[in-house]
Give the backbone structure.
Amino acid sequence: MNKKIWLASPHMGGSEQKYVKEAFDTNWIAPLGPNVDAFEKGLAMYNKVDHVAALSAGTAALHLALIMLGVEADDEVIVSSFTFTASVNPIAYLGATPILIDSEPDTWNMCPKQLEIAILDRISKGKKPKAIILVHLYGMPAKIDLIMTIAARYKIPVIEDAAEALGSRFRGKPVGTFGLMGVFSFNGNKIITTSGGGALVSNDEWLISRSRFLATQARECAPHYEHEVIGYNYRMSNVCAGIGRGQLEVLDDHIKRHREIFNYYKSKLSIFNGITFQQESDVDHYSNHWLTCILVNPEKCGKVTRDQIRIAMEGENIECRPLWKPMHLQPVYCDKPFYGTRVSDHLFEHGLCLPSGSNLSNEDLDRVIGVIKKIMSKALVKEAENIEELVSYHI
Ligand SMILES: *Cc1c(COP(=O)(O)O)cnc(C)c1O
């Protein structure tokens, strides 16, 4: 069997173990500690943002962000429908209702038009949404300027879910820093990892110090354990933060490689009319290209479908996955209000994520490309023969 090619696997830089060893040598095997402080500082500098709290997961960061905005049972929170379930679950944790917004076709992220339609409709039904969770999927910045303008018009705070988009930029400014708060994830599959972890970022000092307080069981200032509100155990461990410090040193290398991988796939696969890419729609959008994503149009591919490609990859020991299944199609959220024209249904039906880890070699990519070329050329030749047959028949 050929070597397994993963979609996105952890890629260590080299100095991670040094920082983890430091944690062991100094016995800082705890949530909090010097690695956590240094990791937060590094992230703040990288993103040009004032305050960062390192947390146990991106999901935890979203949960705390909603709590601090006062989201409670029966409130409504707007969120991109085309996303991973972790963007939406924290809304449900609080007993609030997710209001799901469709994608637009350029960036595949939240459609500004549907956002405004939804806000007006929710207000007319008697409830103004408490927050907007804007996702930058697969690293691609959403149409941030339009979304922020609409959010400001109705005075609704924006939380950016930049879990997949660390290092992506909009008009040169890091994503995650446009909204009131931004969320990053360092799960094992993300562009850098702490094995598991996340961060909440903001230029508002109170929000970040409050999130640290809530993330450490909401312990009041007292010699005994005093609690006035309900807290959580959401801080990042000092051991994990050590991995994060090492990973930050290679983040720019990872982004460079992810972008190379995107360009490599694109240069080799653009010969097929039926294959299109999630790509930067203009110079404002700069994606870290965490995953290279394609759409397969069977009408232009000799009837080859996304699933045929995915299954052929499986046979070659290559991990490929369909794009995220939109939340309005998920059994758990399909009864929630949805505003859209089913752009994301189409993305889900025809889209495929290609292996994109920064540790993949060009030989690995050639194997992936080879599978697609083989299945496509066969189908296109067959189609051409059929056309000839048809032509000769009619003659
Ligand atoms: C990974 C991810 C999250 C959650 O991050 P965790 O650290 O795994 O909790 C949230 N939103 C999106 C879009 C993600 O991809």
